[in-house]
Amino acid sequence: MKLIISKHNLGLWAASYICARWNKRTKEPFVLGLPTGGTVEDMYAALCGLVKNGKMSFKDIVTFNMDEYVGLPPEHDQSYHYYMKHNLFDHVDAQPQNVHILNGMASDLNAECQAYEAAIKQAGGIDLFLGGVGRNGHLAFNEPGSAFTSRTRVMELTPSTRKANSRFFGGDENKVPAKALTVGIGTVLDAQELLFLASGTSKADAVAYLAHGEISENWPITALRTHPRATLLVDPEAASALAGTVKEQYQQALASQPDKDVILTL
């Protein structure tokens, strides 16, 4: 896999990459897996700008979001339905029937998860899956210990994840839902290509473990190393805990071309 360390805005970098991949698409519909979170807000803003300027269109794009809290209605301002509506879908030409977000209010959560997997298969699989990385290395809401073969399911959130997400709920961990629906790691790995983002020093340990540690279900981020076309895009702060040979390669590349992205193979 590739580790790309960039001084540029990660969201703008990712949006440009998505646009390039869409322009080079070899089939329709083009299917995107999409995340939420602060790291990708700039990405969505940039995608909206690209659509507004006629450089890409969502008319032939089918989307599947990674996850959703259990128990939050779509109109709740911390639901991922709300996030996606206000950050992307209200501003682009996506077709409602092409937008898929897990329903955390479903009466049968397991059936909802099974239907989601079936919808992904019916769409022809995901061409490019975007995502973020949690402080403990989780992907989507796949917490440490999640099987790399896992599929879309109900997940109990760990105390560390609820604490990290409490900043969106007025700092009150008790307001953070205890459960979420999430695509599985196996669902993510089925995609043709992966592009994950990590920013800030809070993600440095997870990035360092990806670079130096063993592939382990205790660190879901390491699943990226098992995929033939996976890229982790990080800023210098998220790369600050790199060590050994990887750190040396990073420093050498940075010294020779300080204004360019550093691309490392893990």
Q: Please report the distance between the alpha carbons of the first and last residues.
A: 6 Å
What is the helix tally?
Answer: 8
| Shape estimate | globular
- Strand order in the largest sheet: 5-3-2-6-9-10-1-11
CATH architecture term = 3-Layer(aba) Sandwich
Level-1 CATH class name? Alpha Beta
Number of strands: 11
Largest sheet: number of strands, sense, barrel closure: 8 strands, mixed
Q: What radius of gyration results from the CA coordinates?
A: 18 Å
Number of domains as seen in the coordinates: 1
- Helix percentage range: 25-40%
- By secondary-structure content and strand pairing, the structural class works out as alpha/beta
Low-confidence stretches: none
What's the CATH topology label?
Rossmann fold
Rounded average pLDDT: 96
Q: Tell me the β content.
A: 15-25%
Structure description:
By secondary structure, the protein is of the alpha/beta class. It has one domain: Rossmann fold. Helices cover 32% and strands 18% of the residues. It has eight helices and eleven strands. It has helices at 10-23, 41-52, 80-89, 109-122, 159-165, 185-189, 204-212, 244-256, and strands at 2-5, 30-34, 61-65, 67-69, 99-100, 128-132, 153-156, 179-182, 193-198, 230-234, 262-265. The protein has an eight-stranded mixed beta sheet, sandwiched between helices. The longest helix has 14 residues, at 10-23. The model has no long low-confidence stretch (mean pLDDT 96).
Task: List the main descriptive attributes of the protein structure presented here.
alpha/beta, Rossmann fold, 8 helices, 32% helix, globular
